Amino acid sequence: MHASRPNLAHSDRYSLPEMAAESRDAASSLPSRPTAGRCPSCGSPLLLRFLDLRDLPIHTATVLSSRSEAVAIPRANLRLDVCKACGLISNSAFDAPRHDYSASYEEIQFFSPRFRAYAAELAAQLVERHALAGRDVFEIGSGRGDFLTELVSRTGGRGVAVDPSYRDGDLASEFVGRISVDKAFFAAEQVPPNAGAIVCRHTLEHVHDVATFVREVRAGLDRSSGAVALFEVPDTRPVLEEGAFWDLYYEHCSYFTPGSLARAFRAAGLVPSRLERTFDDQYIFITAATGDGGPSEPLPEEETAAEVVALAERFSAAFDEARRHWQDRLGAARGRAARTVIWGAGSKGVGFLSMLGVADEVDYAIDVNPGKQGMFMPGTGHEIASPDRLADRPPDLVVVMNPVYVDEIARDLARRGIETELVTVAGDSTAVAGRS
Ligand SMILES: [Zn+2]
Fold first, then answer.
1. How far is the CA of 174 from the centre of ligand 1 (A)?
2. Domain final residue, candidates 275, 310, 345
3. Distance from the alpha carbon of residue 267 to the mean position of ligand 1, in angstroms
4. Per-residue pLDDT tens for 219-254?
5. What is the side-by-side order of every strand in the sheet holding 397-400?
6. Boundary residue ending a domain (248, 281, 310)
7. Interval between CA 211 and ligand 1 midpoint (Å)
8. How many domains does the chain have?
9. How far apart are CA 120 and CA 124, in angstroms?
10. CA 85 to centroid of ligand 1, rounded, Å
């Protein structure tokens, strides 16, 4: 289950009686399983298996309160197929109806100033671009409501959300009176008639039956005049190019590229109008709306399915090379009795450690999220510590799990007077000289 979170005052939730009944139904209906042997987005049987990994932790965004529980977390397989027709990559070993989605979302990033600034800027841009002032916003997979708060603070309207991992009291918003979150899976009937947008960030990669889900989004858009779908997912292209094994997790069952994302929307009768790469090109942001029924032309940012297949075919070699590089590097550091820590105990950190199968090559993980400190990472069971711990015995090597935060971390280490080598998981290295 989750790390404990800051205790937040929770006042009355927005009261929508007619919605509450529908939400209960939605909560009881579990996500569907796509047809075996078929692409979950376009239905094609032309699938190419390019990766088969066994016994990965089924949850990577969670932390455990003891090392023994962390090591004992259930495991499952990752069998990645790429669709030759649309380019979607999917884990055919994923078990959607039985997956515990309550442990799936990541809130960690809102502890980073860099991420908060990104979210605020994105929210401002969306409100202006889509004239959302005075309208409601519906969000699928809202977590604690951090992003919905950014939106609602600018629209003046209501925020309505669904998230199966939501727990009473989670809402981290000064706008509690205007935001309601239901612990439920998404159903079109939950979208309020005045919604100007259906927002869904970092959730679609957890959806296995992509076609059914996006059709439901279309039905949700049909309930409100002029509403747009605003979706953000990780971009899988850099993962494939760099052999970034730390970005593959069991609970991410669908892996998108700009082209396969746009094609999934188009297949559901939606018209993608914009495809952007965001957050240092780690994410893809798509804007789509219901069309007039006619086919829409591909956007210039869309790569072809054949291009994704080519990347997937090369991935295996890149994956082996990246894994060998880190096994050698961490093994050599241990041989010199050097102390190594990783920075980031979220999914990337769990993926990195469990796919390398490392143990004492890495001392512990640093995380700025106070809810994770003192807890243990699923899979390898590494302890998670606050950055304050670094001063006790400064490490020789710090491996940063998300390169986006490397400057933020370098400044933090320098402020603490810690001299160390700082290297990102992608291999970019800098020395931190400490306070001068
Ligand atoms: Zn397909």
1. 42
2. 310
3. 10
4. 999 999 999 999 999 999 999 998 999 999 998 999
5. 384-385, 364-366, 340-343, 397-400, 420-424, 429-432
6. 310
7. 10
8. 2
9. 6
10. 5
